[in-house]
Amino acid sequence: MTSITQTAVKAEAGTASWAQRINIGNLVVWILIGLLLFITLFPFYWVVRTALSEPSSVYAYASDLLPHNATTFNFERVLGMIDPSTLVGQQASNISPGTLNFWIFLRNSIIVSGLITVGQTIFSAMAAYAFARLKFPFRNLLFTIYLTGLMVPGIVLFIPNFVFVRQLGWIGTFQGIIAPTFLMSPFAVFFMRQFFLSLNRDLEEAALLDGSSKFGVFWRVSLPLMTGPLLTMGVLIFVGSWNDYLWPFLVGRDEEVRVLTVALSVFKSQTPQGSPDWAGLMAGTVVSIVPTILLFIFFGRRVVDSIQFSGFK
Amino acid sequence: MTVNASTRQTGFLSRILNTISNNEAILGLIFVLPSLIGFTAFFAVPAVRSIFISFTEWNLLRDPEWVGLANYQDIFADERFWRSLTITISYVLWNIPIQTVLAVIMALLMNRVSNSAIFRSIMILPWLMPNVIVASLFLWLLDPTLGIVNIVLDAVGIGKQGFFGLPDQAIATIAGVNIWRHMGYNAVLLFAGLKTIPTSLYEAATVDGANASTRFFRITLPLLRPVLAFVIITSVIGSFQIFDTIAVTTQGGPAGATRTIIFYIYQEVFERRISMGTATAASTVLFLILVTITLIQNRFFRSDRSDLAEYS
């Protein structure tokens, strides 16, 4: 409400005396905002620019603002469209001879993040609904214990989880990578519970009065109202698992299950010391962030809203 | 009769389903069950197990052997452990104050000029990127000879900097990378907090002759406190656990200058030796540090109470 009236007032002021608004203060504000936008966006531009440059020109034309001799060679390389053996001894020495096939890593990342997103969203939402709306034994105790799970640093859990997954024989498998986060995360349960609590009870009570069962209320009333928040949670979980590094690095280094983040760090460590394969590395980077950018374009607004929501526990 | 038998059977089944779907306790437990399995297997049991392992000597090859407090004595006697703690704290001190001040400024700017969601969306873009990507990106931008930042610094007369490669600069550089990644995200959180402050307060203060800085320190900052507390506490907890950026850029170097506590633990298990005992002991110490810091911060910020309640 306040924001609406505020903008209305601002808009009015804008039509009334446009010139008055361009004072020194506003100018400074806009310059600062421009600076922030530049700082935020320039690194992305530089990645793309480098990825499109010829590997040899990366060194000779390091300060050119546009890619020198723009080429898709690097993308073809990291996407496995060029036989690596033909690269050896060709062009400059700064081309990573490592086998690169980002398609596989992209596929692996999609499998891992997709499964985690579906599993964690569904099971966390079920638990969240139970905590928000159903009375069952030990409910509050259980929820408090879940909340303490939010406090435990990842590394405390990684070591015993690594041991456990190793005992299960799941090292180097997809189930090993997704196991710890497939069934729940304390944050997702907590976040979804807040949303369920904010739902209007009237509709649910009306459905109960009409003879609907408890499950019917969940399925036909609460869940449809929650599609927005469920989608948001799904996007957040997807981005989180897509970005995860340490766990998949510990459990899934084998090429068949290697995800993009691990692949990039392996690729980086394979490049020759002293003269890294920057053009190839940046092409790999671009490939890795495209899915996130796509999600961002479709759901950016939703993510912003959910970040703001999560600030008000 | 035969028809009756089959209807009676489905009737029986649907009655069971009916009972379940109408019984809150059973339905609740069924709903919680999958998450409870996940929580037990990958949160509760490992947390307890981690503490147990910290009292044993174990290299994964032979059975763990109970050694009491020996692992804790071991790490407390290890100069590398104390150094990793110092490095972690210096990282947090580089990271948090600058990041928070920048985020507050950013939120105020957003609040002043526009409610545009596009601007806020762009600001969270870095936060959506994987740490590994952000790290390799800055490794390139800050490359000692070819990085564009150094080329610009050289051109304006400041001269090229070592950044990741210099023991004196590495930790501050890594902090800078993470400030870049997180400030927009924090600003969006703080922006939402600013929106909850009633404009009438500012109007009243202006009428009373308060200038901009008085309004900021007397109204904005106190009323922003709950959100600010949330931002700072979560940032500090995250900051203490810095790992990905270091793993990609410096790997603890140069000369151990960026060996933070998580990197120390990582090396205990996967690089230097396979010592589950000392690694879990160190992670238990880290956990205790984080709990202590959270409690102190909570008390300091009184984050559970908003001053706004006194106004409305």
Task: Walk me through what this model shows.
The complex is a heterodimer of chains A (313) and B (312). Chain A is mostly helical and 313 residues long. Chain A has 2 domains: 20-95 and 271-295, no CATH class; 102-261, MetI-like fold, CATH 1.10.3720. Chain A contains 16 helices and no strands. The longest helix of chain A has 33 residues, at 278-310. Chain A is globular and about 75 Å long. The two termini of chain A are 21 Å apart. Chain B has 312 residues and is mostly helical. Chain B folds into 2 domains: 2-53, no CATH class; 72-310, MetI-like (MetI-like fold). Helices cover 75% and strands 1% of the residues of chain B. Chain B is built from 13 helices and 2 strands; from the N terminus they run ααββααααααααααα. Chain B is globular and about 70 Å long. At the A-B interface, α1, α3, α6, α7 and α8 of A face α1, α2, α4, α5 and α6 of B.
H and E order of chain B: HHEEHHHHHHHHHHH
Task: Classify the beta-strand content of chain A into a percent band.
Answer: under 5%
Average of the residue pLDDT scores of chain B: 84
Q: At CATH's second level, what is the architecture of the largest domain in chain B?
A: Orthogonal Bundle
As a percent range, the share of helical residues of chain B equals over 70%
Biggest contact: A-B, 99 and 99 residues
Anisotropy-based shape of chain A: globular
The biggest beta sheet of chain B is recorded as:
2 strands, antiparallel
Number of strand elements of chain A: 0
Major sheet of chain A, described briefly? none
- Count of separate structural domains of chain B: 2
Number of helices of chain A: 16
The level-1 CATH class of the largest domain in chain B: Mainly Alpha
